[in-house]
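Researcher: Going back to the complex we discussed earlier. I've cleaned up the inputs and rechecked each line, so this should be the final set. Can you rerun the prediction on the complete assembly and write out the structure?
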Amino acid sequence: MKKENISDAVIRRLPRYYRQLTDLCNRGVVRISSHSLGQEMNITASQIRQDFSCFGEFGQQGYGYNVEELKAEIGHILGVDNDHHLIMIGVGNLGHALLQNFPFSQSGFTVDAAFDVSLTVVGTVVNHVPVYAMSELDHFLQEHAVDVVVLTIPQSVAQDTANHLINLGVKGFWNFTNIELSSQLPDVQFENIHFADSLLTLSYRIANR
Amino acid sequence: MKKENISDAVIRRLPRYYRQLTDLCNRGVVRISSHSLGQEMNITASQIRQDFSCFGEFGQQGYGYNVEELKAEIGHILGVDNDHHLIMIGVGNLGHALLQNFPFSQSGFTVDAAFDVSLTVVGTVVNHVPVYAMSELDHFLQEHAVDVVVLTIPQSVAQDTANHLINLGVKGFWNFTNIELSSQLPDVQFENIHFADSLLTLSYRIANR
DNA sequence: TAATTATTGAGAATGATTTAACAAAACAGC
DNA sequence: GCTGTTTTGTTAAATCATTCTCAATAATTA
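Model: Rerun complete. Updated structure for the full complex:
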């Protein structure tokens, strides 16, 4: 039974399903039951069926799920076939690392441009992505539809930069700075990656295992 | 009333409290009530008090919490004053970026060494951290107490490398590869950072806002 | 010093998520 | 085609997390 409001907990599990199904596909597995998928992923079969049932009926009784089909369905739900456009702001070490190694296209994203203040990187091309000066940003956004901005800039300028971009109509942010970005506007989406938070939870678990 | 088993949800909020309190400290704020802290963080005062009460009584009725004191308490719970030792395996773009920009010491970690297969980085020193050849890893681990290994290596060698390290007694992993590392051993802790998962949840929310 | 206000920590109530149970449907072997 | 087995999607139960409420207590003010 399709649901109206999907909880965040479910949404955050979808990419993991997608990852596991991609792996199964590559291993040539054709069908899988919720039970075996659960064993591989270390979650209950019940939860898997409950999660999928939020979006439709993808399995067949007595058979299970067709791996390739299910992967396509979840990919579709996640929007990997949507051709999103993305730009990066800040081409330091981390920005460079992402441009060179992160498989944006596998998630349905095209990286159209990068921007930086430093004259040593402006004018270069990193893995087919041209790096422009910050002064060209406003004009670029007027000319191009941009779905997501990756923020790999220093913390000090993060909220100001975000505010500026929101005013220019940007609706999605992938934020790597160590502050909690937010906006009053309800249709602006932030996804924050806090390296330090992650390391601190590990620190806690090591101290309290 | 101190609790025995702290839920994961609570633990994952602790670093955010710590971050916010650090910010308040820097702004010179001396005391704060659960109510105002909640307003700043966009969570209920109730949840804050409930969370803190898992670990003890840090506030005072009619007054609130002393910011500096509370920060120290939460830092202590997270183990930032524990002097953890850490090594990195894989000094590509991402490894480089972390070594140069990530403030390990702020989370209580000292980076003792890095390891890589590439002869172009072996022998170099990145931000005071010496890079050794992989062949020296086993010997290094025999000589040094290492709490956490950062894995910034290609996916293809991730699980094998992790297994090898587990056999050598490593109990903590900060994993940046795109696979879900795991171990049968219950006292081995993994903290996985999946960039792709994060971007895909953003993709979902953009498509379904 | 007494009255008023602010605020915590704890327990109860509510809400959300996860797990269990099961009828219905499809498959597999004979 | 019949019989037993597998496995789904859904409903119900159990568990877990969050929010509400309030007595207790400290600070502040008059």
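Model: Worth noting: The helical segments of chain A are 8-26, 34-41, 45-53, 67-78, 93-101, 137-143, 158-167, 195-207.
Researcher: Good, that matches what I expected from the previous run.
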